[in-house]
Design brief:
Order of helices and strands: HHHHHHH
Structural class: mainly alpha
Distance between the termini: 78 Å
Radius of gyration: 26 Å
Mean pLDDT: 83
Largest sheet: none
Low-confidence stretches: 1-15
Number of strands: 0
Shape: elongated
Oligomer: single chain
Strand content: under 5%
Number of domains: 1
């Protein structure tokens, strides 16, 4: 390298599976908050379209908040439990294979590294050294992209999902209850759309994509949900059904 050119700076990039898991949980939290914002807002705006009384709006909002948080937690628990059960089954299978046929497993690991482009000698040296250090971890990483620490925790996922939904749902509920009847619906629309812009930007950043398209999708979808439910509530209120 010439003296006149500085070496390029290579930032610290996290590549471990634990980081990937944290990123996925954070993304799930953002999406859970988005669900809370839209579903609770759509319900309370619909009720507000039918009546100006705050009691039914409060009752509907609390019911949506509690029911939605429980539903999100249950859905996340079932989904992550199935995932973690599969991961644990794969780990047990690999443990059995290493215990019953270690030589064949070593050859399998050599083959995996050969397919990644290493020479026979290098692949065998790497496989042998990693097997001596921690055979299970070596096979889980090379074959499945797993570590024992990366097995999903269903309870923490359920709690995080419920919490994210609740935080998102509190925004429109507070907005619609803390102002006068005249400002109630416009302010809720404004708060919800601003919150959706924020979740869209965060989601795009976490996904590494350009923010405009995903943010527009979230904002347009949420706006349509609010508009439809408010329109239905207004029609029911005008017709005397509600």
């Amino acid at each position: 390298m010439s003296a006149g050119h500085a070496a390029p700076v290579h930032g610290i990039e996290p590549h471990d599976a634990a980081y990937g898991g944290r990123l996925n949980r954070l993304r799930a939290g953002v999406l859970g908050a988005n669900d809370g914002i839209v579903s609770v807002a759509a319900l309370v705006v619909g009720v507000a379209g039918a009546t100006t009384a705050w009691e039914p709006i409060l009752a509907a909002g609390i019911a949506a908040l509690i029911g939605g948080a429980i539903s999100m937690a249950l859905g996340e628990y079932v989904s992550v439990s199935s995932q973690s059960d599969s991961q644990r089954a794969l780990i047990r299978k690999e443990q059995e294979e290493l215990r019953e046929q270690p030589e064949a497993e070593l050859e399998e690991l050599v083959g995996l590294y050969r397919r990644k482009g290493l020479s026979e000698a290098t692949a065998r040296a790497v496989a042998t050294e990693l097997t001596a250090a921690d055979a299970l971890s070596a096979h889980l990483d090379a074959e499945l992209g797993l570590t024992e620490r990366s097995v999903a925790n269903a309870w923490s996922a359920a709690a995080a999902s419920a919490l994210a939904f609740t935080i998102g749902g509190v925004l429109p509920l507070a907005a619609i209850l803390l102002v006068s009847d005249r400002l109630r619906v416009p302010l809720t629309f404004a708060v919800v759309l601003a919150a959706l812009v924020a979740t869209g930007l965060v989601s795009a950043r976490l996904g590494g994509s350009r923010p405009l398209r995903p943010t527009l999708r979230i904002v347009i979808g949420g706006g349509l949900a609010l508009g439809v439910t408010f329109g239905i509530g207004t029609l029911l209120g005008v017709s005397g059904v509600a």
